[in-house]
């Protein structure tokens, strides 16, 4: 192992070890409503940005996009590697009920640090939208709705130590690892088969299915054993969120990959187009600017 890589790994582990989860939980519990103001400002900036760019030339931004997506890919992969072992242990060694009812995930070990860091990554990921607007690509409702609601639900739930969150965190990291790697390779003009983008959207739909299932499980254990770290209020919010995501992602998949089957003539006429990348939903048109 190279010395610099070993040093980075050691520094990361040291950071995880000194992380004070209890202070982090106290901080988020007091400050989480700020995400509502942040989300509102984000939506206003999205509308203003679209208006501002309406009569202007689009920016290419291929290299900045590759760097941005690459950084988020590395972050997501690292988060997956460091947080997934705890979920594996919870499910296969402690039992499924433990995985949806015990909040230990947020208190000790690498998972505590990476669950906290993920909250702030949701604020950073709003930058995805800037690339879409500046490159004058279609911005669908799913994109900004997903970004805003994940950011606010995550910060709201963290302070409550909702145990099903261990599933949400690991799934989010895992899907984003593949998604941002895909974006990076497309930005670097690698040819990626359409089946890969279909696989990413399918994995996102499955992520929502698992989110719904774990919520029902939490509700069951809360109702019949009253020993499960969740609440009816949080379950209701999560269920509404994951159900809406499922519907939107399924509609996106149907519209892009099933309903939309361009003719050969349209495909030839579109060869001077651009790649249409929607964060948390992927569609390929071409790769000129990638």
Walkthrough of the structure:
It is a single chain. The chain has helices at 3-18, 21-31, 34-53, 62-94, 96-101, 109-124, 127-134, 141-158, 165-187, 194-224, 232-259, 264-269, and strands spanning 277-278, 281-282. The chain has one domain (3-282). A two-stranded antiparallel ribbon has the order 1-2. It has 12 helices and 2 strands, in the order ααααααααααααββ. The model is unreliable at 263-279 and 283-290 (pLDDT under 50). α4 (62-94) packs antiparallel against α6 and α8 (141-158) runs antiparallel to α11 (232-259). The chain starts with a helix and ends in an 8-residue tail after the last strand. It is globular and about 60 Å long. It is an all-alpha fold.
């Amino acid at each position: 192992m190279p010395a610099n890589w070993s040093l980075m790994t050691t520094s990361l582990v040291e950071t995880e070890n000194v992380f004070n989860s209890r202070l982090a939980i106290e901080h988020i519990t007091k400050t989480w409503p700020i995400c509502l103001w942040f989300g509102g400002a984000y939506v206003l900036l999205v509308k203003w940005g679209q208006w501002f760019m309406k009569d202007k030339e689009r920016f290419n931004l291929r290299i900045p996009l590759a760097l941005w997506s690459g950084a988020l890919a590395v972050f997501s992969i690292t988060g997956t590697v460091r947080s997934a072992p705890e979920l594996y242990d919870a499910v296969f060694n402690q039992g499924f009920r433990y995985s949806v009812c015990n909040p230990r995930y947020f208190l000790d070990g690498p998972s505590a640090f990476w669950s906290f860091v993920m909250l702030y990554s949701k604020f950073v990921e709003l930058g995805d939208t800037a690339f879409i607007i500046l490159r004058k690509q279609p911005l669908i409702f799913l994109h900004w709705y997903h970004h805003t609601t994940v950011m606010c639900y995550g910060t709201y739930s963290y302070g409550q130590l909702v145990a099903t969150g261990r599933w949400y965190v690991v799934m989010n990291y895992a899907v984003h690892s593949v998604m941002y790697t895909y974006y990076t390779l497309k930005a670097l003009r690698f040819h990626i088969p359409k089946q890969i983008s279909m696989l990413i959207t399918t994995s996102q739909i499955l992520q929502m299915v698992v989110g719904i299932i774990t919520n029902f499980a939490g509700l069951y254990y809360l109702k019949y054993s009253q020993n499960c770290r969740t609440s009816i209020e949080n379950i209701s919010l999560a269920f509404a969120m994951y159900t809406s995501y499922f519907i939107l992602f399924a509609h996106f998949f149907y519209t892009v990959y099933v309903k939309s089957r361009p003719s050969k003539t349209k495909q030839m006429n579109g060869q001077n187009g651009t790649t249409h990348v929607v964060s948390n939903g992927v569609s390929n048109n071409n790769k000129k600017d990638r």
